[in-house]
Specification:
The structure is a single chain. This protein has 221 residues and is mostly helical. Helices cover 81% and strands 0% of the residues. The chain is flat, with a radius of gyration of 21 Å. The longest helix has 33 residues. It is built from 9 helices and no strands. The protein has a single domain, classed as MetI-like (MetI-like fold).
Length: 221
């Protein structure tokens, strides 16, 4: 079966895709900021000496790492309002699902970075009179974050692609707009190909930048 490619309707409806791309970028900026910054807090708590801090953080990570983010978005959109009486719009449901999932995964990245620091660094901080918190903030975290920066940038790329899952609750983003074009013009192949090309154009320079960053970090080491 042969298919005749026709992107005319895609070009005519480019403003529709543009609106979707803006929605994608916006939800990405919100979720990656919340996910990576919140993940740092959870990652530190995962490494805390106090079980009262460590176990809630561990539970959070295990719950959101071991359940699909798509299910999390749907749960926040449909189940959360029923259980709490708080209305959740598509944007908020997508932000909660994606950012909390990202928080859980990035927390493990941060925790791994903290664990990679040699014990001597902790002892050095203690020897000069630093508290646990001061040692963590001034000595451990700067080195740990530097070590896990490539992994965090890769996680950010995954978050950008994960934004397409927001279409399941009809949030206006790129995939949702492509569905609209496909339904109106009966051209799903072209519509979804256009989405793939848009994501490639946006992400390819970012991916190449992560390679440059990794090389710079290796040289600095």
């Amino acid at each position: 079966m042969q298919h005749t490619w026709d992107f005319a309707s895609i070009i005519q409806n480019w403003p529709v895709l543009w609106v979707g791309l803006q929605g994608t970028v916006f939800i990405f900026l919100v979720t990656v900021t919340l996910g990576l910054s919140g993940g740092l807090v959870v990652g530190i708590l995962r490494y805390a000496r106090s079980a009262a801090l460590r176990w809630p953080a561990t539970t959070f990570v295990e719950v959101f790492r071991n359940t699909p983010v798509l299910v999390q978005i749907i749960w926040f959109y449909y189940a959360f309002p029923i259980l709490t009486g708080i209305e959740v719009d598509p944007f908020l449901a997508a932000v909660l699902g994606i950012s909390l999932n990202t928080m859980a995964f990035s927390a493990e990245i941060y925790r791994a970075g903290i664990q990679s620091i040699e014990r001597g660094q902790w002892e050095a901080g203690k020897a000069i009179g630093m508290t646990y918190g001061q040692t963590m903030r001034r000595i451990i975290l700067p080195v740990a974050i530097k070590r896990v920066l490539p992994a965090l940038t890769n996680r950010g790329i995954e978050v950008f692609k994960m934004s397409t899952l927001a279409s399941v609750v009809a949030y206006v983003e790129t995939l949702n707009q492509a569905k609209l074009i496909a339904d109106l013009n009966f051209n799903p192949i072209e519509a979804y190909t256009a989405v793939a090309l848009l994501f490639f154009v946006v992400l390819y320079p970012v991916v190449q930048s992560t390679y440059v960053l990794e090389r710079m970090l290796r040289k600095s080491d």
